[in-house]
Write a structure and sequence with these properties.
Rossmann fold; alpha/beta; globular; 384 residues; six-stranded mixed beta sheet; 2 domains
């Protein structure tokens, strides 16, 4: 099994809790350990026979062909090697080539809301036959305070921790370890500026040329930096939903940070009231909704099929979730007082998609759940 995900998402803790009693644990991050693995991979594997957990395997990708060799010599034995990585190993050449058909590839992202509440099995709104009884505090200091902290387990289980200080240390660790390991970034300060510029444009159409001009770097450099963010699970690049109906649609993607707390830190927000009422409020709310959907589906072991929809005339649906051949339209609003007029885009999408479109949801930060007409429900974020 290969378990990937961003740093501090709980990969090592999860594997040690589940398999620590029967598997030896080896971290490949220390320089002397990775040097030993590179120098004599067969001897290294002899020293650590299965079942074994190899943590941060991206530091020793040369081990993978030799792990494949050992798996192939005893294919009937399952669970021999448990591997973790802080980068998307599918974006490297070694993993698909070495472990295709031999390993389950799973992702572990920061905690979703339902996981932080201790109820990970709660179905998403469109999967339920009755409304959820779950409720987050809806005061500014509750819901928006939770957005500022984000979903990393260490912050979730230690409410006394200073979230801003934690995120500052996290970003610095990410810059110093993951980026230097990927060897695609020369100027770390300039890359940190790129993170902040990208965060300020979260939930907008991704214009790489504008970002390159603002930072004074080449467009190809911005593309490479964005690929690093994707590889390390820091962002979700959301593609537009393109149907075959012939309507003229926008084909440019959007970008969202995987963790809403990371987004809030990068744009300099520290107070819940400023997050809720400031210019980034809408982007933060959209990020929280996408993150909840994406994490919930990912942690089931499925590949989330989530898109946005936008016509050239400007009609836009924030999110479209494709499931079972059907499309769930989701609109996100910052107002806690939903009104029928806010559901116009959902109805337009439903009319355009016909039978493929399912009832839609208008997700908001308040605590009111009510119908907004046929096929549209106003849904509190806490009930998503």
């Amino acid at each position: 099994m290969v378990l990937t995900g961003p740093r501090q998402s709980g990969k090592t803790t999860l594997l040690q809790q589940l398999f620590g009693r029967r598997c030896r644990y080896v971290s490949l991050e220390p320089p002397d350990v990775r040097a030993a693995a590179a120098e004599d991979p067969r001897g290294f594997l002899e020293m650590y026979p299965p079942p074994v957990i190899f943590d941060e395997v991206q530091y020793a990708p040369g081990l993978l062909p030799y792990i494949k060799e050992r798996i192939d010599s005893a294919r009937a034995r399952t669970g021999q090697y448990l591997l973790t990585g802080s980068q998307n190993l599918l974006l490297t050449e070694q993993v698909p080539e070495s472990l295709a058909g031999r390993a389950a590839l799973l992702r572990l992202l920061p905690l979703s809301r339902r996981e932080a509440e201790g109820r990970p099995g709660i179905a998403l709104a469109w999967e339920r036959t009755r409304p959820s009884s779950s409720r987050l505090p809806h005061a500014v200091g509750g819901l928006w305070g939770g957005f500022l902290r984000g979903g990393y387990p260490e912050l979730a289980i230690q409410p006394e921790r200073d979230a801003s200080l934690w995120h500052s240390s996290y970003i610095q660790t990410y810059l110093e370890r993951d980026l230097r390991n990927l060897r695609q970034v020369g100027d770390l300060t300039q890359y940190q500026n790129f993170l902040r510029v990208l965060a300020a444009r979260s939930a907008q159409l991704l214009n790489l040329t504008d970002i390159a001009r603002d930072l004074g770097v080449a467009v190809n450099t911005i593309k490479a930096w964005l690929s690093v963010l994707e590889a390390t699970y820091q962002v979700i690049v959301l593609r537009p939903y393109i149907s075959n109906t012939g309507k003229r649609l926008v084909k440019t993607p959007k970008v969202y940070f995987t963790d809403v707390g990371t987004l809030c830190y990068l744009v300099g927000l520290k107070a819940p009231e400023h997050a809720a009422s400031g210019p980034m409020g809408g982007a933060i709310m959209e990020t929280a909704v996408l993150s909840e959907i994406f994490k919930t589906l990912t942690h089931r072991g499925t590949d989330p099929q989530v898109y946005f929809w936008r016509t050239l005339s400007g009609t836009e649906m924030d999110f479209v979730v494709e499931t079972g051949g059907k499309l769930i339209p989701i609109e996100v609003k910052l107002s806690a007082t939903p009104r029928p007029a806010m559901a116009t885009a959902i109805r337009t999408f439903q009319d355009h998609m016909g039978d493929a479109a399912m009832p839609g949801y208008l997700v908001h930060p308040g605590d009111v759940r009510l119908p907004l007409g046929a096929g549209v429900t106003a849904l509190p974020f806490a009930d998503l």
